[in-house]
């Protein structure tokens, strides 16, 4: 894996790799190099399988992180490519022509994080939410508890035994 | 709950646009005539449900209730993880068939809708449609704490928390998830209710139809079906 | 046979006995199936409770006149099939309205219910109903082929189309049964019996896992009660034909009960060990195996 990263780094100006464990490596990529890198990895280096495409919301840093997790079955290697997008106007590049499954992931990201993937098939259709008018619910500034309290009727009498508060109350009753 | 973030306000302004196939439109018929079609008005029956009275004779009604109790047909519609707990009832270990409980694949032939676990808004829409298509008298059993007060989905953005706001529930079975034994015991209790003639959920639904509809529509934003699915 | 009004009462009695027999027997078959798989099974009177429950339902939604007539036609098929063939050979009471040409009429009535159901289910407007009906008609058409050929072979063999005479010719000894005198025709007809019993491997019409549950999807309450009545009557009526044609008929109700149960168990036993055929597979099966046997039966008569 190290050789591969070393080989690819100058050509695609990769970031510093993180060797999570044997067989799992993460590396940062630039948006304009992503497509060429994916094609290279798929066609020349045996990373034929797109395990998943997901996003992380770094609210404080003001950016989204897309993670493309690729797998090389023969070498038992998994490579995660991290790509950062601006949170204010998140715009990704569709890779559905490289892996058709990516279209589904991109639809989900479009709906749950509001990341646009122009050109991806059916990307603007509803995926699992129906009639959703609020902000994309997986964004961290979307407060699911507040939303649920403002939307759904609650039944009274519900108690919480959340460990922190309960143990604090039990061990230090005076406060 | 104490930790409410007061700063977050739900978006109540935006309306969900009507789906394209539900919008009123002009259609040219094969013989060249142009007609206006409003799918929601033209394609569906808009009649609200009505309250069905019991039989005049108490003996007949008693016999009917006995038959209803001993021939419970469950709609095979699993909404959440509780669907897994329903299946063992068919197996040799629990064998619900000996109590006259059977599973039917279509709402038209079932009497009992088991809401088996959490109900997302999307599934609620289907559950309402399935419930309304069932012939009267019909019963609803809420399975698991998710249907009672939200359970572990109490802070979910997409899961209802109190089922009896939306459908007339006859019986709740508590647990997360209740074991098949609990489900079977709950069904036995439901049979007792039916025998006593107290399981009149369909009539309650018809009497409080506006209230139920208002609750349902407050949650389901893209309401693109008739008020009552006949 | 001259007509007298008392025959109507006798026929009604036959119908009553056969329906009750069917109710109990189908429940018994399900119970046997349950016991084999280690369950206790349904109560033996469950069919009656289901029937009462369906009649007791309060709301009924209709989709038009044909929707209502579908189950009626279906039940007519079952009742007609039963009433125009002799149920008990040699009995005045249970001779029904059998006459010289009843074999042809019986062949017609086997198909009649399916046609009526197709019209009714078509009007219900449910896509699953339409799929089920098209599959059902395609399959029944081919399944009827060996049956029809077997019946022709039989009428050639006995030189009659009167079921009573065919039964009479089989009396006396076990080896007078068509089963032994013309085994090829029997096998060909059994293709038809197994194919039209709505049991696995030929239950793609209902296909509970994929097009739940085919033509009766929209049927409920009293409509369904009619169809349930037919569901217990029709198989028994069909079995009566087979009993008369191939298994020597029955001279009393006890013999009837035993023979009908035994013949009914043939498709049941085939059903429990075979997975479902797709419709084109079952059509191919009937044309490949059923049809040659039927033709052979005619040729070798």
Task: Please explain how this structure is put together.
The complex is a heterotrimer of chains A (175), B (230) and C (301). By secondary structure, chain A is α+β, with helices and mostly antiparallel strands. Chain A has one domain: Beta Polymerase, domain 2, CATH 3.30.460.80. Chain A has 5 helices and 5 strands, in the order H-E-E-H-E-E-E-H-H-H. Chain A has helices at 2-12, 31-44, 102-112, 144-151, 163-171, and strands spanning 18-21, 24-29, 49-58, 63-72, 77-86. In chain A, strand 4 and strand 5 (77-86) form a beta hairpin. Chain A is globular, with a radius of gyration of 21 Å. Chain B has one domain: Rossmann fold (3-Layer(aba) Sandwich). Helices cover 32% and strands 13% of the residues of chain B. Chain B contains 8 helices and 7 strands, in the order ββααβαββαβαβααα. Chain B has helices at residues 39-42, 58-70, 83-86, 121-133, 145-149, 180-195, 201-207, 209-219, and strands at 25-28, 34-37, 72-75, 101-104, 112-116, 139-143, 171-173. In chain B, the strands form 3 sheets. Chain B has a 3-stranded parallel sheet, with helices on both faces. In chain B, strand 1 (25-28) and strand 2 form a beta hairpin. Chain B is globular and about 60 Å long. Chain B starts with 24 loop residues before the first strand and ends in an 11-residue tail after the last helix. In chain B, 42% of the residues are buried. The model of chain B has no long low-confidence stretch (mean pLDDT 88). Chain C is mostly helical and 301 residues long. The model of chain C has no long low-confidence stretch (mean pLDDT 86). In chain C, helix 2 (46-56) runs antiparallel to helix 9. In chain C, 70% of the residues lie in helices and 0% in strands. The relative contact order of chain C is 0.16. Chain C has one domain (6-300). Chains in contact: A-B, B-C. Chain A binds chain B through residues 128-135, 137, 141-155, 157-158, 160, and chain B through 1, 3-6, 8-11, 14-16, 121-122, 125, 148-150, 154-162, 165, 215, 218-223.
The CATH C-level class name of chain B: Alpha Beta
Low-confidence stretches of chain A are none
Sheet bearing the most strands of chain A, described? 5 strands, mixed
Structural domain tally of chain A: 1
| Lateral arrangement of strands in the main beta sheet of chain B | 5-6-7
Total beta-strand segments of chain A? 5
Fourth-tier CATH superfamily name of chain A: NADH:ubiquinone oxidoreductase Nqo5 subunit
**Fold-level CATH name of chain B:** Rossmann fold
């Amino acid at each position: 894996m190290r050789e591969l990263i070393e080989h690819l780094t100058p050509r695609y100006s990769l970031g510093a790799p993180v060797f999570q464990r044997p067989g799992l490596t993460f590396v940062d990529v630039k948006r304009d190099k992503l497509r060429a890198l994916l094609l290279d990895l798929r066609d020349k280096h045996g990373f034929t399988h797109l395990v998943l495409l997901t996003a992380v919301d770094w609210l404080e840093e003001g950016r989204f992180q897309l993670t493309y997790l690729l797998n090389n079955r023969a070498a038992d290697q998994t490579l995660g490519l991290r790509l950062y997008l601006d949170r204010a106007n998140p715009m990704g590049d569709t890779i559905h022509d490289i892996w058709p499954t990516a279209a589904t992931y991109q639809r989900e990201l479009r709906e749950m994080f509001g990341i646009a993937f122009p050109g991806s098939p059916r990307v603007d259709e509803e995926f699992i939410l129906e009639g959703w008018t609020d902000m994309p619910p997986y964004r961290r500034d979307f407060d699911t508890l507040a939303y649920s309290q403002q939307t759904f009727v609650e039944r009274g009498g519900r108690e919480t035994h959340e460990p922190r508060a309960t143990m604090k109350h039990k061990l230090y009753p005076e406060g | 709950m104490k930790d409410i973030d007061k700063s977050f306000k739900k978006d109540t302004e935006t309306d969900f646009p009507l789906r394209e196939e539900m919008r009123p439109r002009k259609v040219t018929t094969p013989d060249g005539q142009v007609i206006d079609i409003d799918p929601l008005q033209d394609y569906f029956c808009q009649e609200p449900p009505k309250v069905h009275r019991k039989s005049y004779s108490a003996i007949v009604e008693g016999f009917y209730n006995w038959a209803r109790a001993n021939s419970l047909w469950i709609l095979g519609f699993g909404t959440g993880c509780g669907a897994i707990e329903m299946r063992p009832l068919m197996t040799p270990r629990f064998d619900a068939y000996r109590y006259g409980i059977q599973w039917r694949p279509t709402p038209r032939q079932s009497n009992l809708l088991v809401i088996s676990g959490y109900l997302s808004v999307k599934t609620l829409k289907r559950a309402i449609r399935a419930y309304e298509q069932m012939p009267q008298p019909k019963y609803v059993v809420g399975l698991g704490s998710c249907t009672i007060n939200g359970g572990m989905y109490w802070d979910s953005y997409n899961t209802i928390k109190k089922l009896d706001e939306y459908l007339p529930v006859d019986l709740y079975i508590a647990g997360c998830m209740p074991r098949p034994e609990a489900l079977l015991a709950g069904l036995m209790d439901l049979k007792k209710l039916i025998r006593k003639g107290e399981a009149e959920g369909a009539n309650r639904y018809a009497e409080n139809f506006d209230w139920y509809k208002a609750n349902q529509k407050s949650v389901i934003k893209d309401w693109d079906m008739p008020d009552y699915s006949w | 046979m001259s007509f007298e009004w008392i025959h109507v009462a006798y026929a009604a009695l036959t119908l009553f006995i056969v329906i009750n027999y069917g109710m109990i027997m189908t429940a018994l078959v399900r119970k046997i199936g349950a016991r084999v798989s280690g369950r206790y099974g349904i109560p033996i009177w469950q069919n009656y409770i289901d029937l009462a429950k369906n009649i007791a339902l309060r709301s009924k939604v209709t989709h038009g006149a044909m929707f209502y007539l579908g189950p009626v036609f279906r039940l007519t098929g079952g009742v007609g099939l039963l009433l125009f063939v002799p149920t008990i050979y040699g009995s005045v009471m249970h001779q029904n309205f059998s006459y010289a040409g009843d074999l042809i009429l019986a062949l017609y009535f086997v198909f009649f219910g399916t046609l009526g159901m197709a019209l009714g289910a078509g009007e219900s407007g449910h896509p699953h109903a339409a799929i089920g009906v098209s599959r059902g008609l395609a399959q029944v058409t081919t399944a009827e082929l060996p049956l029809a050929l077997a019946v022709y072979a039989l009428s050639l063999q006995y030189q009659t189309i009167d079921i009573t005479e065919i039964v009479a010719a089989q009396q006396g000894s076990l080896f007078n049964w068509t089963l032994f005198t013309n085994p090829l025709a029997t096998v060909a007809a059994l293709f038809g019996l197994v194919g039209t019993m709505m049991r696995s491997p030929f239950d793609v019409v209902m296909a509970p896992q994929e097009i739940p549950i085919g033509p009766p999807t929209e049927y409920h309450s009293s409509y369904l009660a009619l169809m349930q009545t037919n569901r217990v009557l029709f198989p028994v009526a069909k079995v009566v034909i087979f009993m008369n044609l191939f298994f020597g008929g029955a001279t009393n109700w006890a013999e009837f009960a035993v023979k009908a149960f035994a013949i009914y168990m043939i498709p049941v036993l085939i059903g429990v060990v075979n997975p479902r055929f797709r419709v084109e597979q079952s059509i191919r099966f009937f044309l490949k195996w059923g049809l040659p046997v039927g033709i052979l039966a005619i040729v070798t008569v």
